[in-house]
Specification:
This protein is an alpha+beta fold. It is about 30% helix and about 35% strand.
């Protein structure tokens, strides 16, 4: 399978249309999202405890607790620690998730790869998502989520350098916003889901740099089954 084509990068480098988010996405008060809910949100919510552990935490206010409350708190914390450890093992190795949702505008297809680590201030790993509507609707997006990415209070456009595998790096303008207050997000508008899938490989590396500094680097693997599912969904 070929890598993302030069025409794909040319499209990304073109000026964006006016608006707070990429074409087809809506501003939800915090960041950008497709116009309808999609199943990946449920999956990400399950990982939020672990995402929280990657960033700073506010201390809970101190108050007196009864012995029963203390024991219950210990039990809940132990369960959370076990869940976090299991999730940490999964995402440290890398895990795929794919789903589709029926909407009034057609089927919305999505696939995400997560490989998270607390090393290097979050620049090693993150989440990358490919999503878009079934033909003929052209709206599709490639989105990177990472704790090392900028987390502006409002959606803004920034210039980044994107390098894929060993190909020459490309300077592009992207949408940057905060995702659920836990991570930064970088969104690319893609000229259709089929175009994005044509450039996907079974194993692929992405490196995002801002002002010469690596903001996020991630490598996915074993993508072939997910690519096939997305192609079937996109038809």
């Amino acid at each position: 399978m070929k890598i993302l084509s030069a025409s794909f990068f040319v499209f990304l480098a073109l000026p964006f249309q006016a608006g707070a988010c990429p074409t087809g996405m809506l501003y939800d008060g915090n960041g950008c999202s497709p116009p309808y809910e999609y199943s990946m949100d449920d999956w990400i919510r399950e990982k939020n405890d672990y995402l929280d552990s990657l960033g700073p935490r506010d201390r809970a206010p101190v108050r007196s607790m009864t012995p029963e409350e203390v024991e219950n708190m210990k039990k809940l914390q132990a369960e959370k620690d076990q869940r976090d450890a299991r999730i940490a093992q999964e995402v440290a190795k890398g895990i795929w998730f794919s789903a589709s949702s029926s909407t009034p505008e057609g089927k919305l297809c999505t696939a995400s790869f997560a490989k998270l680590t607390s090393a290097d201030n979050g620049t090693s790993g993150g989440i990358v998502s490919i999503m878009g509507f079934q033909k003929p609707k052209p709206d599709a997006w490639l989105i990177f989520y990472g704790t090392g990415l900028p987390q502006p209070k409002k959606v803004r456009k920034i210039n980044i350098t994107l390098q894929q595998d060993n190909e020459p790096a490309q300077a592009v303008q992207v949408f940057s916003y905060r995702y659920q207050g836990r991570a930064g997000a970088i969104a690319f508008a893609v000229p259709g889901l089929a175009a994005a899938l044509d450039g996907m490989r079974d194993q692929q590396t992405f490196k995002l740099s801002i002002d010469g500094k690596t903001a996020m680097a991630i490598q996915w693997a074993e993508a072939a089954p997910v690519i096939q599912k997305l192609k079937q969904c996109a038809q």
